Amino acid sequence: MNFLNPLILFGLAAASIPVLIHLLNLRKQKRQDFSTLKFLKEIEKSNIRRLKLRQILLLILRTLIIISIVLAFSRPVIQSTLPGFASYEKSNTVIIIDNSFSMEVSDGQGERFRSAKQKAKEIVSQLPDGDKVWILPSSQSLFSSGRDYIDNLIESLRIRPNYISENLYGKAEQIFSENKGTNNRLIIISDGQNIKENIGRTNEETDSAQYPNIENIVYIKIGEDNSFKNLSIDSLVILSDIISYNTPVEVMAYVQNHSDSDVEMAVISLVVNGEKVGRRQFDIEKKQTSSVLFTHVFSKNGLNSCELILEDDAISKDNNYHFGLALPPIPKILLVGEYELIKTALQNNIFEQSLSVATSDEAGKYNYSDFELLIVSAATLPSAEEDRIVNYVEMGGNVVLFPSGTNALNKNNLLTKFGFSNIREFSASGGSYAGLSSWDKDHPLFYGVFEQNEALELEEIEIYKAIFVSGGESIIASSAGDFLLETRKGNGRVVYFAVTPSIAWSSFSLTGLFPSLLNRMAFYLPRHDIPWAKSYASEKIVLKIDNNLSKQINVRSPDGDDFFVNAIDMGERSVLSFTAPGQLGTYALFNESGDFLAYFTLNHRSAESRNIYFNKEEIIQEISDTFARASLINFIDFDTRLDSEILSNSSGSELWKLLVLFALFFALVEMFVRGAYSR
How many degrees, rounded to 5, is the angle at CA 497 between CA 408 and CA 413? Predict the structure, then answer.
């Protein structure tokens, strides 16, 4: 039983008034004059009993009158139908429509989502005119509607990634609690795929008794065959340590087969900035994960919007995986000393506008902090200039250092200032020269440089003269000492070559390794870590951006539309925290000056791709566990007629008229008893 005006029930306290009056009358003493006690004996005991019985009867009747009137105003309702008292007034229906990815599947019943929308329209058409209806898509903001345009509302729904973070059952409970009715119906239309994730996302610690207004539940199962083929891209890893212009980048995609059978000759493609740049075929066993490797040379600086695409299968919505790849800005480089060979090695379209040169005498004219990289080669510099270079590195700058050419051993004080020790000169004699012996193949500098095995051409480089040192991390070793070293000084880094780029020292400057390593170092040393994040649509995005002076950040969507978010100033960095849009893809962030700051990508949840479906018993059990107070749970297959199942409990009986009749009846009886008593 429900009450449409439950607050009126507090009026039941008024039923105690007749009782209080009765008790007060019993305590009231009356003075009676009489001459002798002999008259008391004349009162028969039966008259006394009759008097008390009438008083109690009047007390009961008056109490029942008050109770009947209060209950009538509170408007009690029962779900069963009583002749003459049936009413459809204020019945509420909430319809949850599953519009997650799995509803895209087609089987013998047609496309599941289309069938679900048709079933929802059918339900609405059969509900009485007095009912209120709310539509709750599982993957969208709350939709509510009047009956006039509910069909158009249902038809406008689309399949979307399941990003809803709210508890749908809690939303339904809120609707029912705010709209009291004779009967509250919760109707769920779904294919049963992962019901806990896609429909019943609730807090595990929440008491199931939190849904006191959800008593009548109908679950309509859409779909008849769950043995379809479905692959999804669950994740990817960028294997390359250095991301730079015209450099190969390796991307490893992980594809999962959710099907109950093996899949052969599956196809996946890589799309970069809207252009398909790679295609792979692969086989994958049932319920297994397979990795697919792509290698691509990126030629666009700044943000590259990338996408992995699987060939169509039963669920096409999870065949796309978005990611971004931001190529750092072209570093500004200053060459100091004997720079001709180095300039030739770096003189290409990449560094055409960012390369500056200076002789040893001209170096003092430049502000080193304006450059991300200094390359010092065979330079004899004043001690003050050396100190300036050391200070530049300590403050976060980067240096590639070659030894001086004249009186080499005595002219390399800079080596000592950078912390190198055991400085010694090597000169080949008797026609024997040193060669390269080993290299750290895991060092980021070597990714994409060599295409063959470890024993490649390292030993083909001939070293005639060198200045070897100790200290730092050895990158390439020769038979006479470390050929290439890396060390840190303060916040910056120093890379040291043991030879000057001169054919008098070695054949190094004549090999393909020389320009390749220099170009790699130009991006490796002044690494720019561009902030990025990944998330799901309509969930929280948090980004920390260093040295951002803008209070408003411009966010550009994959479609090119812009919107703005406010940045929170945290001193040396700004923090962005906002709800991501619903569209999947790669988003770019810019400051007020139009400078590229960061990016983020949005993808679907991997849970939506899994072929995990609940059967009838599991669905009923899950609903029973969730709605502990549910008095009626119906499980209906798609083909079952809805009239008997849905509408059998749609009507209710309001008892206020019956209670008014009871109050009148009790009042008439009370008048009769009181009148008879008075006589």
Answer: 40
* Phi and psi torsions of 166, nearest 5°: -85, 155
The DSSP secondary structure of 474-495, one letter per residue, reads: EEEEESSSEEEEEEEETTEEEE
Of 561, 608, 609, 559, which Cα lies nearest the Cα of 585?
559
Distance CA 417, CA 390 (A): 7
Q: What are phi and psi of 597, to 5 degrees?
A: -110, -45
Q: What is the pLDDT of residues 405-419, one digit of tens each?
A: 655 454 567 888 999
3-state secondary structure of 420: coil
Alpha helices per DSSP H over 578-655: 616-626, 643-647
Angle at 358 between CA 355 and CA 362, to 5 degrees: 145
Distances (CA, A) of 137 to 154, 234, 466, 619, 634: 9, 24, 72, 19, 20
Burial track 283-321 (b if 16+ CB lie within 10 A, e otherwise): ebeeeeebebebebebeeeebbbbbbbbeebbbbbbbbb
DSSP letter for 412, please: -
pLDDT given for residue 499 in this prediction: 93
The DSSP call for residue 57 is H
Report d(CA 363, CA 335) in Å as an integer. Answer: 9
The C-alpha atoms of residue 543 and residue 536 are separated, in whole angstroms, by 14
CB atoms near residue 595 (< 10 Å): 11
Quote the CA–CA distance of 633 and 448 in Å, as a whole number.
62
- pLDDT tens for residues 273-282? 999 999 999 9
Three-state secondary-structure class, residue 607: helix
Task: Tell me the whole-structure pTM to 2 decimals.
Answer: 0.67
Distance separating alpha carbons of residues 358 and 366, to the nearest angstrom: 9
Q: Report the distance separating Cα 16 and Cα 19, nearest Å.
A: 5
